[in-house]
Design a protein that fits this description.
By secondary structure, the chain is mainly β. It has a domain of 83 residues: Immunoglobulin-like (Sandwich). 11% of the residues lie in helices and 40% in strands. The strands form 3 sheets. A 5-stranded antiparallel beta sheet has the order 3-4-5-10-9, with no helix packed on it. It has a 3-stranded antiparallel beta sheet with strand order 6-7-8, with no helix packed on it. A two-stranded antiparallel sheet has the order 1-2. The N and C termini lie far apart (61 Å).
Length: 141
C-alpha cells in the first residue's frame, strides 16, 4: 500500500465507498436510497419518501454544509467539516437546536422537534461529523 499523506487507509476507504455505492445502486428501490455520512437511508416505511433533505446551504457564506435525516424517534445530522481547521470541532446539542463549531465557523441548526440531550451524541471521523439526536418523548399525564 502506498504512503498517502492524507491517511494510510484513504485508498481502502475510497474503494469501500465505491463498493457501497454499487450495493446501493443494486438495491430494490435504489432511486430512493441515499447515503448520508455512515448511514444508508432508504424509503420511509409509511409514506415511501426518503426522510432526508438538504437544508438551506448557500454556496460559501461560512456555513458548514450539512444534511438532515429523520425517523420517528431520531434525527441524524451529517456535516462536512473543513480539513483546514486547527481545533477539534464540536456539536453543541441543545433541546431545540444544534450548533456545529469548527474554529471560527459556527452553523446553527434549528430543530423541528425537541431532543433529549442526554441520549444524543456526535462523532467526527475523516472530516465528517455524524450527530445522532434522540427525539424527546411526549409526556403522558
Amino acid at each position: 500500500m502506498q504512503n498517502n499523506p492524507n491517511g494510510p487507509y484513504d485508498d481502502v476507504f475510497n474503494n469501500l465507498s465505491k463498493i457501497v455505492e454499487d450495493i446501493v445502486k443494486n438495491m430494490p428501490d435504489a432511486q430512493n436510497a441515499r447515503i448520508v455520512g455512515y448511514t444508508i437511508i432508504t424509503r420511509h416505511p409509511q409514506n415511501g419518501d426518503p426522510g432526508m433533505f438538504r437544508d438551506g446551504m448557500p454556496e460559501d457564506d461560512g456555513e458548514i454544509p450539512y444534511e438532515i435525516a429523520e425517523t420517528d424517534d431520531q434525527i441524524f445530522i451529517t456535516a462536512e467539516i473543513p480539513t483546514t481547521i486547527k481545533n477539534a470541532p464540536i456539536a453543541d446539542i441543545e433541546p431545540e437546536r444544534v450548533r456545529i463549531i469548527a474554529d471560527d465557523r459556527i452553523t446553527t441548526i434549528m430543530l423541528d422537534h425537541k431532543v433529549d440531550r442526554i441520549h444524543s451524541y456526535y462523532r467526527v471521523h475523516r472530516s465528517v461529523m455524524d450527530i445522532t439526536l434522540r427525539k424527546e418523548l411526549p409526556v403522558n399525564l
